[in-house]
Amino acid sequence: MDIFEKLKPENSDLGKYQQVGHGYYTFPKLEGELNPEMIFQGRKVLTWSLNNYLGLGNHPEVREADAKASKEWGLAYPMGARIMSGQTKYHEELEQKLADFVEKEKGYLLNYGYQGMVSIIDTLLGRNDVAVYDSDSHACILDGLRLHMGKRFVYKHNDMESLEKQLIRAEKLTEKTKGGILLITEGVFGMEGDLGHLHEIVKFKDKYQFRILVDDAHGFGTMGEKGAGTGEHYGVQDKIDVYFSTFAKSMAGIGAFVAADKYIIDFLTYNMRSQIFAKSLPMPMVHGALKRLELLQTKPELKNHLWTVVNALQSGLKEKGFNIGVTESPVTPVFFEGNVAQGANVLKDLRENYNIFCSIVIYPVVPKGTIMLRLIPTAAHTLEHVERTIKAFSDVFEKLQTGEYDADEVTL
Predict the structure, then answer these.
(1) What's the rounded mean pLDDT across residues 187-196?
(2) Is the pTM above the cut of 0.90?
(3) Which stretches does DSSP call E strand in 160-285?
(4) Predicted local distance difference test score (pLDDT) of residue 412
(5) Smallest Cα–Cα separation from 245: which of 260, 234, 235?
(6) Integer Cα distance of 168 and 379 in angstroms
(7) What is the distance between the alpha carbons of residues 218 and 195, in angstroms, rounded to a whole number?
(8) Helix/strand/coil percent split, the chain, to 5
(9) Domains within the chain, CATH numbers bracketed
(10) pLDDT of residue 274
(11) Cα dihedral sign for 12, 14, 16, 22?
(12) Which of 207, 11, 219, 228 is nearest to 99 (CA)?
C-alpha cells in the first residue's frame, strides 16, 4: 500500500470537512488591527477568539517597545543558539524577572510554548521514571509523554481518588526501577476553563514521593492576586516544583519560560535539546516581553477589567440559562446539544447575521452530540460587547431549539 494513500481527503472524515470548511470554519483569516472588533471576510466582527487576556497585543506601550527594539536590533540578533553565540544580558534579565514574579529561584527562556513543554518532559524523565498526568492534559503534554521511554499512568480529570491510585502504582513501580515520579497537570485547563486542583494535589506530597510540573499557560497573568498564576490563586505556589507558561496568552507574544530551583533550571539549560539546537529568541521578542511583564506587574487595572468582563459574560450567560460548564477562569465554554452540521450552522449564523466571531469545538474534544462554543474574554472587551454577545446567543439558542439549524452535512 502507498503510505500516502491515507492522506487523500476522500479517505478520511477530516479531509472531507477540510474541503468544505477551510478558510471559514478552519484557518479563518481575521484582518485589521488586533482588537475585539476585526475584519472577517470583508465584514467587521466582534471576536472572542484571541488569547489576548490582558489586551497587551495592541497596547500602545507594547507596540512602541516592539517597534523600538526591531529598529535598534533587527530580527536576527542574537545569531545562533544561546549555548554557542546567542546569549545576551537581556535574555538573562527577562529570565530572572519572570522567575521572581512566579516566586521561583531561576528561570529559563524557551522559544515556543508547545515545543518547550514537549522538551521539558523529555528532559526531566528518564526510562526508569514514571509520569502521572491528568487525562485532560494539553496536546503538548501528551506529545512530550510520547517521547518518554518509561511508564506513564493517567488519572481521571481532577479526580483525586483516581490520582492516588496512580501514585500508588507509580511508587510500586519505581521501587523496582529505582526511578522517580513526575506528576503533570495544568493550572487552568484551556478548553473548558476549570482549574487543576493544585491545592489538593500538593497534599499527596505528605504520603508519596513525587515532583509536580504545572503547565499554567492560561493561568499566568490571569489567576492570583498579582497574576502569578494558579498556584498563587490556591496559595500553593511554593509547592510547585517546575512552573511553566507561554507568552502566547497574557503576554501576547511568542516564547515561553520555565522556572524552578536553580539546579533544576541549570540541568534543563544544558540538556533541553529543543533549546540547545535552536536559534536564540530574537531581541525584539525579548525586549517586548520585558515591557509586557512590566505592564502585567504595574497595571493591575488590566487584570481587574478582564475579570469585570469575565464575570459579566459568564453571569449573563448563566442567567439566560446557558450551560457554561465548570469554568473558574476567563475561558468561557458554552455547551449546546447537536451534531457537527448543526454546530457549523450555529457558527455560520453567528458570524454572518450577528457579526459574532467565536470558535467551535466538536467531537472528539467533546462527546458526540455536544457542540461547544468557546469564548475568550479580554481586557480589551467592553460590557457593551458582552451585552451584544448574550443577545446574539439567546437568539441562536432559540433557533437551535426550533430546528432551524437541522442538517446532516456541513456546508457553507
Answers:
(1) 96
(2) yes
(3) 181-186, 211-215, 242-246, 256-260
(4) 67
(5) 260
(6) 43
(7) 10
(8) 45, 15, 40
(9) 5-57+300-401 (3.90.1150.10), 78-281 (3.40.640.10)
(10) 93
(11) negative
(12) 228
Q: Which residues contact 184 (CB under 8 A, 6 or more apart)?
A: 121, 131, 132, 133, 134, 137, 141, 145, 212, 213, 214, 215
Contact status, residue 386 vs residue 380, Cβ threshold 8 Å = no
- pLDDT, one tens digit per residue, over 192-206 is 999 999 999 999 999
CB neighbours of residue 368 within 10 Å? 9
Helices 340-353 and 383-401: crossing angle in degrees, nearest 10, is 140
pLDDT at residue 326, as a whole number:
96
Tens-digit pLDDT profile for residues 342-399: 999 999 999 999 999 999 988 777 888 898 999 999 999 999 999 999 999 999 999 9
- Going from the C-alpha of 137 to that of each of 60, 126, 191, 241, 318, the distances in angstroms are 35, 20, 10, 18, 27
Burial group, residue 94, by CB count within 10 angstroms (0-12, 13-18, 19+): buried
Measured in whole angstroms, the distance separating CA 231 from the mean position of its chain's CA atoms is 16
The pLDDT of residue 6 is 85
State the pLDDT at residue 373: 95
User: Residues with Cβ < 8 Å from 292, sequence gap 6 or more?
Assistant: 56, 62, 247, 251, 252, 253
Cis amide prior to 377 (ω within 30 degrees): no
Count of beta carbons in the 10 Å neighbourhood of residue 115: 18
Neighbours of 75 (CB within 10 A): 10
DSSP letter (8 states) at residue 325: T
Neighbouring-strand partners of residue 346:
none
On the question of pLDDT at 315 being above 70, the answer is yes
Give per-residue pLDDT as tens, 11-41: 776 666 777 788 999 899 999 999 999 999 9
User: Could you count the other beta carbons within 10 Å of the beta carbon of residue 44?
Assistant: 12
Residues 6+ apart with CB under 8 A from 171: 181, 208, 209
With a CB cutoff of 8 Å and minimum separation 6, the contacts of 317 are: 324, 332, 334, 390, 393
End-to-end Cα distance, the chain: 34
Q: ω before 60 within 30° of 0 (cis)?
A: no
Which positions ≥6 away from 82 have C-beta within 8 Å?
A: 91, 275, 280
Average pLDDT (306-333) is 97
pLDDT tens-digit readout, 131-148:
999 999 999 999 999 999
